[in-house]
Amino acid sequence: MNPRLGFLLVLMAFAAPVAAQPIDATVFSVVTLDPAARGSALGGATSALPSRDVISMLENPAHLAPGMHNQVGVSLLNHASSLKTGAVAFGRSYDSLGTFGVSMRFLGWGDLTRANAAGEELGTFSAGEFVMTVAGSRPLSEKARYGASLNWLRSGIDGQAASALALDAGVFRYDADQRLGLSASVHNLGVVLSSIGESSDQLPLDLRLGISKRLKYLPLLVSVTAWDLTDFGDDSGTATVLDNIFYHLRLGGEFQFSDNFQVRFGYDHRRHAALKIKSRLDLAGVSFGTGIRAKGVSFDYGFNSWSSLGGLHRITVSTGL
Predict the structure, then answer these.
(1) What percent of the chain clears pLDDT 70, i.e. is strictly above it?
(2) Closest CA to 149 of 167, 131, 132
(3) 116: how many CB neighbours lie within 10 A of its CB?
(4) Which of 22, 48, 264, 307 has minimal CB crowding within 10 Å?
(5) What is the pLDDT of residues 130-148, one digit of tens each?
(6) Which residues in 148-169 are b (16+ Cβ under 10 Å) and which e?
(7) Residue 294: CB atoms within 10 Å
């Protein structure tokens, strides 16, 4: 094994015991959202997917590759209510150094109503989150890459703010002959610089493992991402061991009809368990979408079902400059 690859895998393995919070329990929630429409359509099962879009560096910094040189990507999501979130990223490659990327992510909560203890409205206030990312990757071998990114996070509400510095690191190996992808990555490993309120805020530490495989006799790429593995020992209120396993899995598939047209689907069991309302068939946690590429411009669309609450639509556009 390449010694650098071994070092990264050891680092990720020992990240698990670090005081981690459940993925949902954080003021820095923007980093827990799917950054791009392709990942949204695949239910978040993106860690081991070969990609040519620069925004994928936010899913695993090792995805940065020379083919993303001078590429820019923009992603927007109409979240629930008046929430808005999006990301923009740019990549550049240098032969002797590697491939680098910068990104900005934001989450705006819209105008919120201020009220006193008696329920009397006293106007409005705003809240939002912002993340700046600088990332880089280098080849480990002909088939593997490793990468890391440094993130500055800020979350504000009504004049108060929390900030943090966090590291993401990952490895990604893709065998084009076998059409097999493997990955390991750790996300949001860092320190909180300031908190909102008296209690200390926490970063949503996340350890992920991924595998993807393009089937031999069907134009289908199947992808599985195991995530939030720092909290795997907690049954999280699930009824069975099988439920607990699926609680940490995201499943996705992509029909690759050509290099320029794909149809995608995915399933997130944790999202299904959290959002399901109907007693029988409930599509919460189900996702789908499509990808189209023409004249050097990629257009991706992803939809996530929130049961009877509706759904979320994400659009990503990327192109070379």
Answers:
(1) 86
(2) 167
(3) 8
(4) 22
(5) 999 999 999 999 999 999 9
(6) bbebebbbbbeeebbbbebbbb
(7) 9
CA–CA separation, 141 and 234 (whole Å) = 37
pLDDT at 21 over 60: no
Question: Which of 46, 71, 64, 59 lies closest to 138, judged by CA?
Answer: 64
Which tokens go with 19?
């005081």
Domains of the chain as residue ranges with CATH = 3-115+122-320 (2.40.160.40)
- Which of 22, 15, 13 has its CA nearest to residue 202? 22
CB 166 within 8 A of CB 201: no
Q: Can you say how many angstroms the Cα of residue 90 is from the centroid of all Cα atoms in its chain?
A: 17
Find out whether 168 and 187 touch, Cβ atoms under 8 Å. Answer: yes
Helix (H) or strand (E) holding 12: helix 3-15
What is the spatial distance between Cα 165 and Cα 193, in angstroms, rounded to a whole number? 7
Structure tokens at 100: 């680098």
Residue with tokens 């620069």: 54
Closest-CA residue to 262 (of 312, 316, 208, 211): 316
> Which are the contacts of 6, defined by CB distance < 8 A and separation ≥ 6?
none
Q: Are 184 and 9 in contact (CB under 8 A)?
A: yes
Other Cβ atoms less than 10 A from the Cβ of 138: the count is 14
Task: Give residue 3's pLDDT.
Answer: 42
pTM recorded for the entire structure: 0.83
263 Cα distance to chain centroid: 19
